[in-house]
Every structure is written in structure tokens, then in C-alpha cells.
Amino acid sequence: MTCMEISKRGFRKSGRFDKQSALSVRCSSGGRLILNPPCYSKVGIGMPFFEREGIRFAYDEFGPAGAPVVVFSHGFLMDGDMFQPNIAELRNEFRCVVWDQRGFGATGAATRAFSYWDSAQDLIALLDHLEVASASLVGMSQGGFISMRAALLEPDRFRAIALISTRSDVDSEEVQQSFEELKAEWARNGAKNVAQNLSAFLFGPEYAASAWIRKWMNASADHFEHPVNALVSRDDITPRLAEITHTSIVFHGRDDAAISPGCAEALAARLPNCKDLVLVDRAGHTPNLTHADIVNPPLRDFLLRYAR
Asked: Where in the numbering of this chain does the AB hydrolase-1 domain appear (predicted)?
């Protein structure tokens, strides 16, 4: 199937999202167990940081210290909050590490140009900081771009890879232009004129997303420049997919308006050791968040089998 994209179409108004709070306790092994899904302030209060290239990256971790490590990398416009319902399912059996990438969440605005290869090195630096020799990866959209590049940079570092709503190739010129227009609009007016449409585009019309809209409304007007540039200038790694021999699984929403399900089919077909392609009915670009009840069981089964 041909890999197609939809850029400006499909924007619809969405509803409201009430964030769940979190409570974590320190266990005797030194790790943390989450009693409720994690909730991040995104002002950096109480969150640990690591530094690379003068940037302070926010991260957090949940679960037993001695459990297999799984690193969750979020999508464009998102932050570690997007994995709350997945970590709630996985926290008892895995050491779940979430981090906020350059330009997002508590890590804050990106002040200089970067590529997703730089972001992949950021992910590896996080593992170095945590003194983790081996981990598995869960990457959603942009987080998938980064996870695949990290696997190419240090293949022996990773066990298994779960890819959600992502692709290995590049966007069409039309889609790239739409992001350039979005960048210009954000620089002029912030998110106020685009937040509702972005919410519907990413989450679909039924998901209550007011918390995400508030995040975007509170982001600085210059928030978008370098992250958009990294997105539209990324290289095509399709010719290198054969090098990603790690056990993998691909998830995708059937109604994804940002990246076509055809991209997921192509990705799964080209990954040498892909065990399954899970297409989620009535889900858009963020199925792990909006349809966690469908995504969590196969994700958990995959990690239990291959991430240990």
C-alpha cells in the first residue's frame, strides 16, 4: 500500500480532558511503584534532570529498580504525559522511563537547531546517566523516529522496539509546507488559533483533551521553530531498516490523519524481525493514549516476551 499523508484535512473540535494525579512510593529495592498513573507538572518541580550539550532534560522513572528497563519517547507536540495509561499497566513488571525531548514538556524550548540523530543521542545519554546497559524502546510518532535512530546508533544497547504511529520515510512537500505554516502562525500568535484543530487532528473528536490544549496555550511563541525544522528536515532511514534486527511490533490507528496506516504496513513489512502489526479501529494518531485498553494488552505481552 502506498504511504500517504493527510495534513490540513480532518481537523474537528474535541472535548475536555481531566488529568489524573499520581502517587509513587519508594520500594525497598530503591525503585518506585506507581499507585496511580503518573502525572507531570511540566514545570520541572520534583522531576530529575540530566544534562547533555548544555541542555537540561527532564525525565522520570516508575517501577522496580531491578526490572527490565523500557524507555518511552513521546510524539511531536506531546510530552511524557502521553504514556500515563500505558505506564499504569506496565509499572509493576518494568522499570518505565519517560523523558521530555528538546523543545517539549519540562525540558523547555529548544534554543538551537538539532536533528533526530541528536535526539537519539539524547536518549542514549539518558541511559548512560541512569547507568542502564540494556533497554527496550517504545516510541510514538516523533518518538519512533528517535527510537529507530537510537537502535541504528547503538544496536547492541536495545532488546525490543515498539513503534506507534510512526514511519521511516519523510513527509511530502505539501505536509512539510503545512508545518512551516503552522510554525509561522505559532510564532505570530502562539497556539490560540490552532490548538483546537491540533487536538482533533492528534486525538480525534471524542477524546477529552483540554489538558493538552492548556499546555500548548502556555507554550512560548518561539516554541515551534527548531522542533518543526527537525521534523521537516529529517532524513529517510527506510534503506537502513534491514539493520534494525531487534524484535519489534508496530501499532497504528486506522483513522490516523497524520500518518497513514499504509506507512505502518510498509514499516512492519520492512523490519526484519517485526512480530505483529496492530491496527486499532476508530483510533487516530495517538492510539496508546486514546485507546489504551486496546493497545496495552498486546504491548504488555510483547514486552513480557521480548524485553526481559
From this structure: 68-291
pLDDT tens for 173-188 read 999 999 999 999 999 9
The CA distance from 225 to 239, in Å, is 28
Beta carbons within 10 angstroms of residue 50's beta carbon: 17
For residue 100, name the pLDDT band (cuts at 50, 70, 90): very high
Going 40 to 43 to 45 to 49, the CA torsion angle's sign is positive
How many CA atoms within 13 Å lie on the side-chain side of 210? 6
Task: Give domain limits for the chain.
Answer: 24-170+236-306
**Which three cell numbers mark 293?**
485498553
Determine the Cα–Cα distance for residues 300 and 307; give it in Å rounded to an integer: 10
Residue 139 β-bridge partners: 73, 163
- In the chain, where do the E strands start and end? 24-26, 32-34, 49-52, 55-62, 69-73, 95-99, 135-140, 158-164, 247-253, 274-280
Cβ proximity of 22 and 36 under 8 Å: yes
Half-sphere exposure of 231 (CA within 13 A, CB side): 27
Beta bridge partners of 96: 62, 70
- pTM equals 0.86
The three cell numbers locating residue 111: 534554543
Ramachandran angles phi, psi of 237, nearest 5°: -100, 10
Tell me the C-alpha to C-alpha distance, in Å, between residue 24 and each of 33, 45, 51, 57: 6, 15, 24, 21
Taking 60 as the threshold, does the pLDDT of residue 30 lie above it?
no
Alpha carbons 191 and 9: distance in angstroms, whole number: 18
d(CA 119, CA 159): 19
Distance (Å, whole) CA 106 – CA 77: 13
List the one residue out of 67, 59, 8 whose CA is nearest residue 32: 67
Superfamily covering domain 24-170+236-306: Alpha/Beta hydrolase fold, catalytic domain (3.40.50.1820)
